[in-house]
Amino acid sequence: MIQAEPIHRIAVLEDDPHVLAHFVDIISASPTLEICATASTLAEARAMIPLAPDLVLSDIGLPDGSGLDFISELKAGSSCKALVVTAFGDRDTVVTALSAGADGYLLKDSSPEVILAGIQVTLMGGAPISASAAVYLLDHLRQRDPGPVVMAEPVLDHLTPREIELLTVFARGQSYKEAARSLGISPLTVGNHVKAIYRKLEVNSRGAAVYAALRRGDLQV
Length: 221
What we know:
Helix content is 49%, strand content 14%. The chain is globular. Helix 1 links the parallel strand 1 and strand 2 (33-39). The protein is α/β, with parallel strands linked by helices. It has helices spanning 17-28, 42-46, 67-77, 91-99, 112-123, 131-144, 161-171, 176-183, 187-201, 206-216; strands at residues 8-13, 33-39, 55-58, 61-62, 65-66, 81-86, 104-107.
């Protein structure tokens, strides 16, 4: 007998009703996810904590405060995952969000596929980060430790020039389709390159791939 996949309970914190409905539609379309609560203010968000969701999709700018304050409180009292999805893409906000305990950081203009994948990766213990946010995070780490990065193990799987080109356009915030047009290749070919990149870098998101390539020294942006 085939055992059904577990259903994960998702809460959403978003003050824009249209964006909230968009996120609810994305989550509801997945057979392994269900909405357990929604909130549009910090006060409403705090009331969701006792519901013990598996993951909260959280905005940052709220009418009565910051979603980062909520994430800090959430993390202090539960094992719930927190995935930030926001319009704020500046370095300080990225670093502050991750320091507050966010498990991942995506931008609101991400495609539904990227947001859904981000939720699933976060639930599995991963840390999806938008490509541009990964660049800011690496810059922050470089400022804290300007010395050279030393790899614990030798790099065995080198990225090809085309894979590096693809990561470069991802770091600039381009989507799969935009990257395909920029490089003059088909979206299918982009997908094949992405699979190879993920395998070589042992990651499962574009942001993590950009971050790993920067850390390895393969990518300069």
